[in-house]
Design a protein that fits this description.
This protein is mainly α. Helix content is 85%, strand content 0%.
Length: 418
């Protein structure tokens, strides 16, 4: 463990500015993430007189709208100067947050959710993870893991802070506060940390040109979508987005149905964030050493165990075990998936490939809250909902193992197969 920490410290110190940039982009993405928006759910449902299913439907509609254009907006990171791309995205997130704070009706609520999801959950996280994977070919695992600490910190700190802020000034002023921080803090800092990035990008382009074999082996988006193995692994790859989004979106209602105090439960998110953080740090060097393909084989097992515990037990202290287990899967997901796409498909078209998967993941995250809300309105117990999610994750794991077995030498075979 000591060697791991020393490795991370040395790597972070040597690459501080760019790693800090990735950290900030993943932190600010939280403004459009489900765990953040879900905190405002009870207040929004009360103000607009929405049921669980109706609020889930609004969220699904806005998220699907985001997913539909993400492959096109996300692809721009492959061709547009990074500082310009970051400026557009953060200004978009600022406008989205302002708009959320002033919406007058449910119709505008759908548009607000779309803007928050697209610029926050979609593009900010896309920028943070894609840049780490692209510019650190020998240390992708460590780079993504360290940058992803920004998201872990947001998960640990923001829910409780937002609950206090909502209780003090109301949910609209709480989102207005988030908007102000984007414009005053995050945009200037991110642009400052990108100073001199053109040198890094020139070095990356030179390496690509100096290694024509590896560059030629990079898959295009069309190559990926025409390969059957992609569809075998897809159910597992979107499982965390589908399941965790649904759970976090309805966590306050989830806690009430379990008989757990919602404020205590939300304050316990630090357990989830801590285990997610530990897992990210532990998995980074493992991925660099053994590959993401090998590390990802069993990444859904912790969330399966956590869901089964909720199904089987009712004591409030099992909530911490549940949060720890889903945090482990979340940590591997953050680090492993970004590196996986770079390992298997190359980095030449990484923005297009990652944004395509991101779009599918966003679709999954749109369906999760809606489906869970409908099932809750039907009167299905939260225990049985967790059991259904666990069974889905089990089937997805089997398909994942089959797909990974067939994809171990995919880059070596690609030139002969296509």
């Amino acid at each position: 463990m000591k060697n791991y920490l020393l490795t991370y410290l040395k790597f972070s110190r040597e690459n501080f500015s760019f790693i800090a940039f990735g950290f900030l982009m993943l932190f600010v993405s939280s403004v459009g993430q489900t765990f953040f928006i879900g905190i405002f759910g009870p207040s929004i449902r009360t103000e607009f007189n929405l049921t669980h299913a109706m609020w889930g439907g609004v969220y699904m509609a806005g998220t699907i709208m985001s997913a539909m254009i993400l492959p096109f907006t996300g692809k721009k990171i492959d061709s547009m100067p990074l500082s310009k791309y970051v400026s557009y995205v953060l200004i978009g997130l600022f406008v989205a947050s302002i708009f959320m704070s002033v919406i007058p009706s449910i119709t505008f609520l759908i548009l607000a959710v779309f803007l928050l999801r697209h610029f926050g959950q979609g593009l900010c996280s896309h920028i943070g993870s894609t840049t780490m994977a692209r510019y650190y070919p020998k240390n992708r695992g460590k780079a993504v893991a360290v940058a992803s600490l920004g998201f872990s910190l947001a998960e640990a700190a923001l829910p409780f802070l937002m609950i206090l802020l909502i209780a003090t000034v109301g949910w609209r002023y709480a989102y207005l506060t988030a908007a102000s921080s984007i414009l005053i803090i995050f945009l200037p800092l991110c642009l400052l940390l990108l100073k001199g990035h053109h040198v890094r990008h020139a070095e990356y382009k030179a390496l690509q040109e100096a290694d024509p074999v590896n560059n030629a082996s990079s898959w295009s988006r069309g190559d990926m979508l025409s390969d059957y193995r992609f569809y075998l692994l897809l159910p597992a790859m979107i499982a965390p987005h589908f399941i965790l989004t649904a759970l976090f979106f309805h966590h306050l209602s989830f806690a009430e149905l379990k008989g757990w105090d919602p404020t205590w439960f939300t304050a316990s998110y630090w357990i989830y964030a801590m285990f997610s953080l530990i897992t990210m740090l532990a998995s980074g060097p493992l991925i660099d050493k053994f590959s993401a393909v090998k590390v990802l084989c069993t990444f859904l097992i912790p969330i399966i165990l956590g869901l089964m515990l909720v199904w089987a037990f009712h004591n409030v202290w099992w909530a911490w075990v549940y949060l720890a287990l889903i945090g482990i899967t979340s940590g591997i997901t953050y680090t492993g998936l970004t590196v996986f796409w770079a390992e298997v498909y190359g980095v030449k078209h990484l923005g297009a490939i990652k944004s395509t998967f991101g779009s599918l993941a966003v679709f999954a995250s749109a369906l999760g809250p809606m489906i869970m809300g409908v099932i809750m309105d039907w009167g299905v117990s939260i225990e049985n909902i967790c059991l259904i999610f666990a069974l889905y994750a089990m089937v997805a794991t089997v398909l994942l193992v089959v797909a990974l077995q067939k994809m171990k030498f995919i880059n070596l075979k690609k030139n002969n197969e296509y």
